[in-house]
Amino acid sequence: MWIDTHCHLDAPEFDADRDAVAARARAAGVGTLVLPAVAASNFDAVRELAESHDGAYALGIHPQCVDAATAADFERLARELAARRDDPRLVAVGEIGIDHFVPGLDRERQQRAYLAQLELARAVALPVILHVRRSADTLLAGLRRIRVEGGIAHAFNGSTQQARQFVDLGFKLGFGGAMTFERALQIRRLAAALPAAAIVLETDAPDIPPQWLYRPAAERATGPGGRNEPGELPRIAATLAALRGWSIEETAAVTSANARAALPRLVR
Prior knowledge:
Elements: E1 2-4, H1 18-27, E2 30-36, H2 43-52, E3 56-59, H3 71-83, E4 90-99, H4 107-124, E5 128-133, H5 136-145, E6 151-154, H6 160-168, E7 171-175, H7 185-193, E8 199-201, H8 217-220, H9 233-244, H10 248-262
Parallel strand pairs: 1-2, 2-3, 3-4, 4-5, 5-6, 6-7, 7-8
């Protein structure tokens, strides 16, 4: 069985057919979905969906949501983590991190929020799920300052040196739809060359569609299409298998074991 270590099943793109999306994932052999929150407003949604679809969830405030977050939102996060720290479905603090790609975001506010959420993760002894977008060195500096229980660097697209530093700090690196594009040379090099124990699979559904679902922005603006789903994970995994010279069965076994190592509460 496969584990999708990053899926936003609560996203509005799934409002019309959410249960069918989850059913297709199960039919494709995706046995567990990890649903990270992005804001206080969807804490309840990811928890309830994890319960109803036998998945797992993470609680955190996404760097792109930090500017709109209030002090009350961070207080709620602290309360929820403390109250639910023994919930076996709560597997991480996330999605947290820093985004240096999207223009206009307050970098100092992101940094404060990131460090504060690392402190929360350390307090409840949970791993973290990191948003890494042109911010790997800044995130690594924070992790050296505030040690946590490892976790996953989601949608990793940094350098080989940065990848090794995350691995040395106890992190796995998430690979998904971007890996399926032949021009994604750095991602594919990393997927092929990293230690086997460093790799987990994810979809980031409904985002980061694989090559066969991708539509240019101009086409997406004219109508629906290009939505990623967790059921695409086995086909995404076939790209990893080809890059590594693994069988599909070996790819499933290795990446699922890595996911459980990164998020130990998945072992239930």
